[in-house]
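Handout, section 4.2: multi-component inputs.
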Amino acid sequence: MIGLPHYLVLAAALFSLGILGLLTRRNAVIVLMSIELILNAANVNLVAFSRYATGNMDGQLFGVFVIVVAAAEVAVGLAIVLTLYRLRRTPNLDEADILKG
Amino acid sequence: MTAEAAVFWLFAIVTVGSAAVVVLSRTLIYSAFALLFTFFGVAGLYVLLGADFLAATQLLIYVGGILVLLLFGVMLTHKIYDLDLRTETTQLASGLIVAAGLFVILAATAVRTQWMSVPRTPAPTTAEIGRLFLGRYLLPFEAASVLLLVALLGAAMIVRRRRDA
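Output:
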């Protein structure tokens, strides 16, 4: 029988993979993709709780807001990455050290 | 094994497997296309959880919007004729330790905790979501629309070429 813990473990796996991508990849676009994985993991949790634990719709509404914020985040994040690429000719995050004294 | 369990495991394998490809693949384009399957898998899980509106939103916004935007990002930050679309990793060992530890902690908590259980019987959700958005959640709904406008203007401001520069 599939229950709440199944979905929570699945979301934990998705979240951990996103964290792994954030920590280990140098490419800025992959880092943005990893953030999307993390947001999706949070959304799976919210919808699973809405289905199995709270018995109302609040989790799904929160999920819609998460998707809205993710769309805004990726638009602004990509704009920053493109500006960085135009400035430094590299998509690698650890070469963006202009602020370092 | 019931049909629900079979479908759950199918979507779970698709989602986690392609998420692993996103993170671990050395080629940027493979990551972008694996992300497509992750989003499809998560949409399938939403359907399985009885969230039909959210599943459709996931397909429309993530697959139709965010993924296309990310592909633009891939294309614009790499020369297409450049064969070297490869990307490097840093601190792989320590990152693996942190991520694996995090997964163990989260999974152990999820399995061991005695969760409150008030299951919702699956029913069409769209009408209910619309009522809640224009009723109890009207203020966050309006705030989200302002946020989207600000993000749109902000993104356009950041990427525009300054004439004096």
